[in-house]
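Case study: 30S ribosomal protein S17, chloroplastic.
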Amino acid sequence: MKLRIDEATTRDVEKGRGGRGYVDDDGGPVVKSSSSSSSSSYVSRSPPSPASDDAILEDLRGMSLTQLADMRTIPGWDLVHNPPRRNPRGALVGTVVSDKMQKTVNVAVDRYRIVPKYRKRWKFTRKFMAHDEKEVCNEGDLVMIVPCQKISRHKHFMVREIIRRKGQL
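Here is what the predicted structure looks like once written out:
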């Protein structure tokens, strides 16, 4: 993947003439404002000062492609963005409701569906049995479970991590 910084397109994007539509200074889309008075008004941050903009561009030009691909090495990335959490495929987050079995916990996963007519959330709860090899989970813990090869008749998930212990914020 090749990354190129082009000052002409950067100026076009800041003025709202970008080729991919309206984008913000961090590359994300600009949302329409909620005011109904003007149909084409867009909410955007004010552009940074030219001196700081040039300094940022010089920092980025000095970086290699591998450094640019790794977002954590970009200066100021941690101040602006929360790093995306890379969840494995099929991972579910739920609360441990039972740990009375050996090496097995029962995890309740809540899912919500919005009913369009009433604009209310409809809560679905489903319980999964998950394998806890070291028996570290306790009742009330918030855990992440991932699908695995079927271990027993009802158990086909494993506990990947304990996100939050019971009683902690």
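For the exam, be able to explain this: Helices lie at 7-14, 50-61, 65-69, 77-80.
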